[in-house]
Write a structure and sequence with these properties.
The chain is built from two helices and 19 strands. It has about 280 residues and is mainly beta. Strand 13 and strand 14 (about 170-175) form a beta hairpin. The relative contact order is 0.14.
């Protein structure tokens, strides 16, 4: 089992669990593919907080990921499966015939020693990357491009997989993990398989310290603030705020539609995603 639950020896252990990372085969990253990451604390270039409740956390090194998979005609040997602190899924270190090494997203079932290919001539096997026009209908794919050649943008989280359900002309029809059905150019590339580290969502952090290590600071309720700090603040005693739940800037925060009505890509969406909180389709 990938999730380990400790004995309840303390308050922090009582409700916590850890990921044993059984899929990972190596702990030391490839130094040539690392970049230092600078902490912003949720602040923009002028020092103003644009994303609240961010700051601190363990120092991380960014792993340069090959989302394009554009090295066609060469076999890539999988050297190791590694943990990436910057994303929920695991990554795989591959080496091509000319000696170049790259990181890619690791799907479920990918083993060290496997050979991966990319391009129009690649076979529809686990880990291979090819245009959607060459992928057989019904297969699960991930790391999907939205425009040909720009690199994978969709379905890159742990356990993520989209299903190719049809093709019509130059467009391919995909069912995304959210339930949304979307049209994508058939020349866009995608990788075969479901992304690994499927049980990532089952991990319970258990105590505040582990959340602080991730760079998350305490989240204060708006109704607990003063009126000058939040629209829902103030009042005699405890209350619900006297208005619909909003953000500090007054924007509706519970179920409000945030997608632009005139967005160009609206015509590519055949069916909107299913809203998990309210159990209905978002129109």
């Amino acid at each position: 089992m990938a999730i380990k639950i400790y004995k309840k020896t303390s308050a922090g252990r009582r409700f916590s669990s850890v990921n044993r990372r059984e899929e990972a085969t190596c702990t030391s990253p490839e130094k040539s593919l690392l970049q230092p990451m600078k902490k912003t604390g949720g602040r923009n270039f002028s020092g103003k907080i644009t994303c609240r409740h961010r700051g601190g956390g363990a120092k991380q090194m960014y792993r340069i990921i090959d989302f394009r998979r554009d090295k066609d005609g060469q076999a890539a040997d999988v050297l190791s499966i590694q943990y990436d602190p910057n994303r929920t899924c695991n990554i795989a270190l591959v080496q091509y015939g000319d000696g170049e090494r790259r990181y890619i997203l690791a799907p479920v079932g990918l083993k060290t020693g496997a050979k991966l290919y990319s391009g129009d001539d690649a076979e529809p096997r686990l880990g291979n990357c090819m245009p959607l026009a060459r992928v057989p209908l019904g297969l699960e794919v991930h790391n999907i491009e939205m425009k040909p050649g720009e690199g994978g943008k969709m379905v890159r989280t742990a356990g993520g997989a989209a299903r190719l359900v049809g093709r019509e002309g130059k467009m391919a029809h995909l069912v995304l993990p959210s339930g949304e059905m979307r049209m994508v150019n058939a020349q866009c590339r995608a990788t075969i398989g479901q992304l690994g580290n499927v049980e990532h969502a089952s991990v319970r952090w258990g105590k505040a310290g582990r959340t602080r290590h991730r760079g998350r600071r305490p989240h204060v309720r708006g109704s607990a603030m003063n009126p000058v700090a939040h629209p829902m603040g103030g009042g005699e005693g405890r209350r619900h705020g006297g208005r619909d739940p909003v953000s500090p800037t007054g924007k509706l925060s519970k179920g409000g539609k945030t997608r632009k009505r005139r967005k160009v890509s609206n015509k590519l969406i055949l069916r909107r995603r299913r809203n998990v909180r309210y159990g209905q389709l978002v129109l």
